[in-house]
Design a protein that fits this description.
Number of helices: 8
Strand order of the largest sheet: 3-4-5-7-9
Structural class: alpha/beta
Radius of gyration: 25 Å
Largest sheet: 5 strands, mixed
């Protein structure tokens, strides 16, 4: 087709040779309609995916549902519930808690995290690293050492150790000399009730 020539229309292919498949257009239209009517809810997303033949989304549905259930549980959790969490669930709980306070939170991988369990960014772009320790005893010096290394690795301006317990005197001394903020059980309770 040369420039300025009229657009050819082919009944079978549509404009300029584009072959539109009626089934795919119907599915796309149904997906758009479902999202428009149901809104950005999980039901709307599932309806849209089903309408569009969302075979690729289906394996993710159990994970999405599990995360939604976990977030609801986290929103209602008190310190007694936090005490029952395992270490990785505690990290996800802290991420949820910090997000509810308006921070952007990245949960680092379970291994190879360079000493930070969470990387937190505030509205001004300031970055902090968090070492999360869900303990029954007191948290020792190792947690502070890990987060000091993470602060440099992630180019953070602040470092925190957060626990549902308390810190040893040695951990407090090292934290003070390395400008690491320690949030113990009573600080965590205040943070929980602040939401």
């Amino acid at each position: 087709m040369t420039r300025g020539s009229p657009v050819r229309y082919n009944r079978r292919r549509g404009r300029a040779g584009f072959r539109a498949k009626p089934a795919s257009l119907l599915a796309l239209g149904s997906a758009v309609l479902a999202v428009g009517i149901l809104g950005p809810t999980l039901d709307g997303a599932l309806a849209a995916a089903a309408a569009a033949g969302g075979v690729l989304l289906l394996p993710r549905v159990p994970r999405v549902l599990a995360r939604m259930k976990e977030r609801r549980a986290f929103s209602a959790a008190g310190i007694e519930d936090v005490d029952k969490l395992d270490g990785f669930a505690f990290e996800r709980y802290l991420a949820h808690l910090l997000r509810s306070h308006g921070y952007k939170v990245l949960v680092t991988p379970e291994s190879g995290d360079f000493g930070a369990d969470l990387v937190v960014t505030d509205v001004h772009g300031e970055r902090a690293v968090v070492q999360a320790k869900r303990y029954t005893g007191t948290v020792g010096i190792k947690a502070v050492q890990e987060v000091v290394g993470a602060k440099a690795h992630y180019k953070a301006t602040q470092a925190f150790c957060i626990t549902n317990s308390d810190f040893t005197p040695a951990a407090r001394t090292l934290a003070k000399s390395n400008d690491v903020a320690l949030l113990s059980r009573k600080d965590l309770i205040k943070l929980i009730h602040k939401t």
